[in-house]
């Protein structure tokens, strides 16, 4: 079988070269039309809430800031995972949504619940409205809460 293919290829060189050229041109044409990024976005849909609170220890931040926000965010539709980190002067909560979740809907749900949680936060911390993500940021949004009182 392979001998016949080789014999045909050697006898019909112009036809084989024309076929190879056609495959090459078709491949180049299709490569230019593929919707592929140089680095594909494999991140999950997530919204991050950062709260800056000065003059509080990590234990106090966990109790007064992180825990109330986590309780308000629990049960949010489409949320798959919630993780938090409390450090000196910073509370960070990341809510990971299902892959099929719309980032704008997720941001809206988090912003609505964050407004409810703001009432129970320390008085020198207040939630800021979520920023609009840039066009290239398909699935990650960061919310920030900043301290409005100057440090002593």
Structural commentary:
InterPro entries: Acrflvin-R (IPR001036). Residues 124-134 have a biased composition (Pro residues). The chain has 152 residues and is an alpha+beta fold. The protein has two domains: 2-31; 46-147, Multidrug efflux transporter AcrB pore domain (Alpha-Beta Plaits). It is built from four helices and five strands. Strands 2-3-1-5-4 form a five-stranded mixed β-sheet, with helices on one face. Helix 3 (58-73) crosses helix 4. The longest helix is centred in the N-terminal third of the chain and has 19 residues, at 13-31. The mean pLDDT is 83.
Task: Chart the SSEs and their pairings.
Elements: H1 2-11, H2 13-31, E1 46-52, H3 58-73, E2 79-87, E3 90-97, H4 103-117, E4 125-127, E5 140-147
Parallel strand pairs: 1-5
Antiparallel strand pairs: 1-3, 2-3, 4-5
Order of helical and strand elements: HHEHEEHEE
Structural class: alpha+beta
Helical content band: 25-40%
Q: Please give the count of helices.
A: 4
Overall 3D shape: rod-shaped
CATH topology of the largest domain: Alpha-Beta Plaits
According to DSSP, the number of beta strands is: 5
Integer average pLDDT: 83
Largest sheet strand order: 2-3-1-5-4
Strand content: 15-25%
State the distance separating the first and last CA atoms.
Answer: 88 Å
Architecture of the largest domain in CATH?
2-Layer Sandwich
Q: What is the count of structural domains?
A: 2
Low-confidence stretches: none
For CATH, the homologous superfamily of the largest domain is named as Multidrug efflux transporter AcrB pore domain
Radius of gyration: 27 Å
Largest sheet: 5 strands, mixed
CATH top level class name of the largest domain: Alpha Beta
GO cellular component, one term: plasma membrane
Organism: Ereboglobus luteus
InterPro entries: Acrflvin-R (IPR001036)
Protein name: CusA/CzcA family heavy metal efflux RND transporter
């Amino acid at each position: 079988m392979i001998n016949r293919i080789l014999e045909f290829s050697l006898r019909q060189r112009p036809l084989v070269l024309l076929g190879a050229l056609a495959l090459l041109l078709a491949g180049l044409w299709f490569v230019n039309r593929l919707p592929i990024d140089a680095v594909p976005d494999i991140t999950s849909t997530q919204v991050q809430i950062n709260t800056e609170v000065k003059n509080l220890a990590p234990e106090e931040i966990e109790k007064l800031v992180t825990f109330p926000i986590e309780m308000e965010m629990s049960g949010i539709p489409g949320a798959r995972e919630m993780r938090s980190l409390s450090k000196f002067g910073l509370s960070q909560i990341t809510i990971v949504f299902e892959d099929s979740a719309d980032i704008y809907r997720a941001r809206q749900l988090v912003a609505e619940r964050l407004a409810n949680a703001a009432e129970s936060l320390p008085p020198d911390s207040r939630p800021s409205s979520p920023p609009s993500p840039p066009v290239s940021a398909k699935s990650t949004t960061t919310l920030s809460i900043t301290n409005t009182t100057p440090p002593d």
